[in-house]
Design goal:
The complex is a heterodimer of chains A (about 625) and B (about 230). Chain A is mainly alpha-helical and about 625 residues long. Chain A has helices at about 10-15, 25-35, 40-45, 50-60, 65-80, 90-100, 110-125, 130-140, 150-170, 175-185, 200-215, 215-240, 245-260, 265-280, 285-305, 310-325, 340-355, 355-365, 365-380, 385-400, 405-425, 435-460, 460-470, 470-475, 480-490, 495-510, 515, 535-540, 545-550, 550-555, 560-570, 580, 585-595. In chain A, helix 10 packs parallel to helix 12. Chain B contains 2 helices and 14 strands. The chains are: A mainly alpha (about 625), B mainly beta (about 230). The interface of A and B includes residues 82, 129, 171, 172 and 178 of A. Chain A: Keywords: Initiation factor, Protein biosynthesis.
């Protein structure tokens, strides 16, 4: 600003000396001062001592004694009654001094005075509205020195004032919420995650959500929620950008978290492990930010549920899912994205279970149709990439969400199979990975779904007979020969179906060398287990882990659908979907195959089925000796 | 109220090809983006619209994205407050220095103390702020009162009206109308009664312009203005 402030003490004294003002005298005096300013330049300021003193009082932000604070309060109250004399250009020095004030550093009385001034200013002149809103938005960020348990009272004091002020301004200026939206969104820490600590990010989003649930919610709900989703998505991408081996990052973290490990990654893993564990444990890591934000989101969704407005929120989230998340599919390393989708999952879950209305809807299969319809709509839409990710979201969601009943899954599976078989009938083409990739991902999804859900569907007699009647044969064994293609593609690396299963397997349990070397998967299942520690507690209860499905095939192996068995009977067994293939092996082999899919540590991917059975638990990665994998 | 008008507009809307599967929705979206904003072309704030698509065939605009152009005939409800108009609004906040008013539920207006005529005196009773006329004790302005004010200037960007209560025919609408009724009764002059429910329309004869169509008779549609967006 280039304003040379005089000694503050002197300035305070001088103003105080001016005598025993009554309130209105003071207001008049301030008005006179304000009116006497003829130019906004610092040069003019030097000629106007009174004005200069006024500014120096306001911008004095060192420590405040009780006297000084009382004086500051008085000094601020007076201009707030003289706002009509404030000119945007003439008084820019004063204004910018006030807009720079940080509420967090003041006591409640001063906060009130500042807030009062801001409200008066915003409501007196349209030109100041944006700046006032921006000033309030800035308070969403705590100061750098802020720490949580200690600063909780302070946080309450500041934020309750800020939000009530925003409401006050909206009372006088009905259009101000619409102006607030771009200001809030522009100030999100979206592009500067590096410079900002987790607490600030969380607090900012907390405030966004507070706006969403507050009196202004009607106007700001959609942009705020969409902004939050974008922020999460960016955090995903940013995380990915930072870590060259992001795939390893996640899995390493999981290893650390569950304190299980394998030997497979020893050769190249130890150094990366160290590097990543510092990244992950660092308070500023993207993972931690993402984790904390997810927790915040879950909490918010829970509060929405309590408040009974979950449906609105859910609709908004679904819309922004369609727009933002689905289309982001190819743009990033796929696996990372799943963390964010858990929101939708949680959204679905929390509410549908508890709200009686939804429970009823669920029984009628209605509740999920909203969501599944979205997927199906995308499926029949034009955009290839979206269609593929829609399929994988659908399969993954159906597979992983614990609360879905068998009949919901069955009906959706039927639609999926139906879609695939229609697709087959329409095509005269031969095997063509490029042209039919949506179809192939559809087949992939069906298999994935069956892996997870066959058991539960088999338990219901009605569904069992229905399942046996499904035209799976026509879908899986036809001129497009998805299974054949899937196998070939393994070598070609175009379509990672088979590895996909292994991949999922590993996602839950361990890291393999093969996996680390993989650049990208053409298909991913977004609802794979979330490895973030804090948010885990929200997800775990609603989640089906592969280890939970595992007993299915122990008991049920004979009853597994023969039609699938037949359809794949001609296929080369190596690399086939375990769940489908199990009946081709004797029990021992089968057990070992299951081991591969379970969450318990196990050996390398490429060992044969009978290779390693029931290996004991291994030592944690950090203290393991560096040897090659046992299984090899 | 002054400043409200219905305009017939010939519009051309350019739609992104991705919206081709639901043209109607896309047009609604496009037109809705004009709502509650000052529009230079129409010289007013668009409050509402209805439209008919003129032609089922749309021209395609050559370019990287083949936008298609849909021609519409639209009826727009416009509000264009201009200086020296009389407008009506509800008081939402009263301070010693200012009166804050909301017009039509979305436009904010402020009257600062310099623009409140001397007749009004600020009082604070039981924590409620109000302005009371010195000469007529019943003429009160407080939160919730519908008042009539004169437009001094309009900030079109922020949709902010700077108003004035200096002229004698401004102030509490109910009181003013009652006053007028009384005067006309005692004078025996031509009666000018209007519905006094606060939503009434009361215009100075000189202020009724040919272009103005009040809300109460918006079936009376003005056909003169035709506009095109770019």
């Amino acid at each position: 600003m280039g304003v040379e402030l005089r000694n503050n003490e002197a300035a305070l004294d001088e103003m105080a000396e001016d005598g025993d003002f009554t309130d209105s005298d003071l207001v008049d005096h301030i008005r006179d001062i304000l009116c006497s300013v003829t130019s906004g330049s610092p040069a003019a300021l030097a000629e106007n001592k009174d004005y200069e003193r006024l500014i120096s009082v306001v911008s004095h932000d060192g420590g405040h004694g009780a006297d000084e604070e009382a004086f500051l309060v008085t000094t601020l109250e007076a201009p707030s009654r003289a706002v009509s004399c404030i000119d945007h250009d003439l008084h820019n020095l004063l204004l910018s001094a006030i807009f720079r004030m940080n509420l967090w550093t003041y006591r409640p009385q001063v906060m009130d005075a500042v807030i009062h001034f801001i409200v008066s200013l915003a409501s007196s002149n349209g030109m100041f509205v944006d700046e006032c809103l921006a000033m309030l938005t800035k308070q969403f960020f705590p100061p750098r020195s802020f720490q949580l348990p200690r600063g909780l009272t302070r946080k309450g004091q500041v934020l309750s004032r800020v939000h009530s002020t925003l409401n006050d301004i909206a009372d006088v200026l009905p259009l101000s919420p619409a102006r607030l939206v771009p200001i809030v969104l522009a100030a999100t820490p979206q592009y500067r995650f590096h410079d900002i600590n987790t607490l600030s990010v969380v607090m900012y989003v907390e405030n966004m959500l507070k706006l969403e649930s507050g009196a202004l919610g009607e106007v700001v709900r959609i942009p705020m929620l969409a902004g939050m989703v974008e922020l999460l998505l960016d955090l995903d991408i940013g995380w990915d950008d930072i870590e060259d081996d992001s795939s390893k990052g996640i899995f390493e973290m999981e290893l650390e978290a569950v304190d299980k490990s394998t030997d497979d990654d020893l050769n190249d893993g130890s150094e990366i492990t160290r590097k990543l564990s510092t990244k992950i444990s660092g308070s500023n890591s993207f993972a931690e930010k993402l984790d904390s934000l997810l927790v915040l989101t879950f909490e918010h969704l829970e509060s929405c549920e309590v408040g009974g407005r979950l449906i609105e929120v859910f609709e908004t989230l679904l819309e922004s899912f369609k727009r933002t998340v689905l289309t982001a599919y190819k743009s990033k390393f796929a696996q990372v994205i799943y963390t964010k989708l858990d929101i939708y999952e949680a959204c679905q879950l929390t509410h549908m279970q508890s709200l009686p209305m939804f429970r009823e809807m669920m029984e009628n299969l209605g509740g999920y149709y909203v969501m599944f319809d979205t997927f199906f709509m995308v499926l029949i839409s034009v955009l290839g990439l979206c269609r593929m990710s829609a399929v994988s979201y659908l399969a993954s969601y159906l597979s992983r969400a614990k609360f879905l009943s068998a009949s919901v899954i069955a009906s959706t599976l039927e639609r999926l199979v139906d879609w695939c078989s229609k697709y087959v009938k329409m095509q005269n083409d031969k095997v063509n990975p490029e042209a039919h990739r949506v179809f192939y991902s559809g087949c992939q999804a069906i298999m994935y779904l069956l892996c997870f859900r066959m058991r539960s569907m088999m338990d219901v007699p009605l569904l069992k007979s229905w399942l046996l009647r499904l035209p799976l044969e026509s879908v899986l064994n036809n001129k497009l020969s998805p299974l054949e293609f899937l196998r070939q593609s393994k070598a070609a690396g175009l379509f990672m179906t088979l590895e996909k299963f292994e991949f999922n397997d590993f996602l839950e349990s361990e890291l393999s060398k093969e996996f680390g070397g993989r650049e990208r998967l053409d298909m991913f299942f977004p609802f794979d287990p979330c490895l973030l520690k804090k948010s885990d507690r929200y997800i775990r209860p609603k989640f089906i882990f592969w280890s939970m499905v595992h007993p299915t095939y122990d008991i049920d192996e004979d009853s597994c659908d023969e039609d699938i068995g037949e359809s794949v009977a001609n296929e080369n067994v190596d690399g086939m979907d375990y769940a489908i293939l199990q009946q081709h092996y004797d029990l021992d082999e089968f057990d070992s195959a299951l081991n591969k899919m379970s969450i318990t540590p196990k050996n390398s991917l490429h060992s044969t089925f009978g290779g390693a059975v029931n290996k004991p638990m291994r030592m944690p990665s950090r203290i393991r000796p560096s040897t090659s994998p046992e299984s090899l | 109220m002054e400043g409200l008008s219905v305009s017939d507009a010939n519009l051309v809307v350019y739609l992104h090809p991705s919206t081709g599967n639901n043209v109607h929705k896309a047009i609604l979206r496009e037109l809705s983006s004009m709502l509650l904003r000052y529009n230079d072309t129409f010289e007013g704030i668009v409050l509402a619209y209805e439209f008919n698509i003129l032609d089922k065939d749309a021209k395609i605009l050559p370019g990287v994205h083949p936008y298609f152009t849909v021609r519409l005939k639209a009826k727009l409800l416009l509000y264009s407050p201009k200086p020296d108009m009389l407008v009506e609004g509800k008081v939402v906040k009263v301070t010693q220095e200012s009166i804050h008013v909301i017009i039509l539920g979305f436009l904010s207006a402020v009257i600062i103390d310099r623009d409140i005529r001397e007749e009004f005196q600020y009082k604070s009773k039981h924590g409620k702020q109000l302005f009371v006329s010195r000469s007529h004790r019943r003429h009160v302005i407080k939160v919730g009162t519908m008042i009539r004010l004169l437009v001094k200037s309009v900030d079109e960007e922020t949709l902010y009206i700077y108003g004035s209560l200096l002229p004698a025919h401004t102030g509490n609408i109910i009181w003013l109308d009652k006053q007028m009724e009384d005067t006309s009764l005692t004078d025996g002059s031509a009666k000018r009664r209007k519905g006094n429910d606060g939503e009434s329309v009361m215009q100075e004869p000189s202020r009724i312009s040919a272009e103005t169509v009040s809300v109460n008779n918006d079936h009376h549609v003005k056909k003169s203005k035709k506009h095109k967006t770019q």
